[in-house]
Amino acid sequence: MSEPLATIAARLVFHRVHVYVPMVESFHALGYPEPDGATKRFMRIYRWLPHSWITLSSDHADIFRQWSGVKQPVHVLRNTTIDGIENAAPRDPSFPLPHQELKVLVLGRLTAHHKGLDLLLTYAQQHVSSLKARKIKFRLVGDGEYKPTILAALSATPGLGDVLELAPWSPPLEAYRQADCVLLASRIEGVPLVMLEAMALGLPIVASDLPGTRGYLPAECLYPIGDLPKAVSLIEQLRNPEFLTSCVKKNQDRYQASASAAAFSKNARQLTGELVD
């Protein structure tokens, strides 16, 4: 409740208020039960209090307008990476040969619904033999409430440990260096930092087709939410040097144009001008 209280306090002393909304999906889309009547009544009032709203992309702005019914301006402030990543040495452009294991990084908080890890775990359990034959191994790096479920599945499913590894949290740059590509299996994302960091480092990414990914990644690296067979097919295509080079080049170009420190500074200056006009 800190944000609404701060908004109300600012309005009471006649300050302009602009509210940043990185996650714009509805309660239902986020996997939460619908709010009670009192919460709905409060939100119907609260949505009129800010002078404007700020989202991560034009797609997010459209989603937010549609379900919230806000009439104020909805601005865009694109995300950027954490300091240091974009200045790190780029990844070695080589990729595993067909007879070598392909290491797929899944980096971030271990949550089932949001990150789609329940979808990935179920797919891996059901396709152990196929993944072993295709020499694909998922490496999950992180911690969170879904960890006990993953550990239980590793204990109960013969051979699962050969195609899915649960590693403790490590510095992101270290995790990226040990990976051949990144998978985002999420149902919901803003503009994920993992995606932006991988783009900056020249690491290919295969991701769910979401408002926060489709504006950055090439269409040929996106797949419908939950379609893990399609995701694995795209991961395998990265063994093709021409496909790999094309994806990495597009990622790096889009990163520089949309998410680099220079691009973020330009976006922030433009937004500041819009807010003070």
Q: What is the structure about, briefly put?
A:
With 277 residues, the chain is of the alpha/beta class. The protein has two domains: 76 residues, no CATH class; 157 residues, Glycogen Phosphorylase B (Rossmann fold).
Please, could you describe this protein's structure?
With 277 residues, this protein is an alpha/beta fold. The chain is 44% helix and 13% strand. The strands form two sheets. A six-stranded parallel sheet has the order 6-5-4-7-8-9, with helices on both faces. A three-stranded parallel sheet has the order 1-2-3, with helices on both faces. Helix 8 (193-201) crosses helix 11. The model has no long low-confidence stretch (mean pLDDT 90).
State the main characteristics.
277 residues, alpha/beta, Rossmann fold, 12 helices, globular
Number of domains: 2
Low-confidence stretches: none
CATH topology of the largest domain: Rossmann fold
Give the proportion of residues in helices: 40-55%
Extended strand count: 9
What's the level 1 CATH class of the largest domain?
Answer: Alpha Beta
Percent strand equals 5-15%
Shape: globular
State the CATH superfamily name of the largest domain.
Glycogen Phosphorylase B
Strand order of the largest sheet: 6-5-4-7-8-9
Q: Roughly what is the average pLDDT, rounded to an integer? A: 90
Total helix count?
12
In CATH terms, what is the architecture of the largest domain? 3-Layer(aba) Sandwich
Give the N-to-C terminal Cα separation: 29 Å
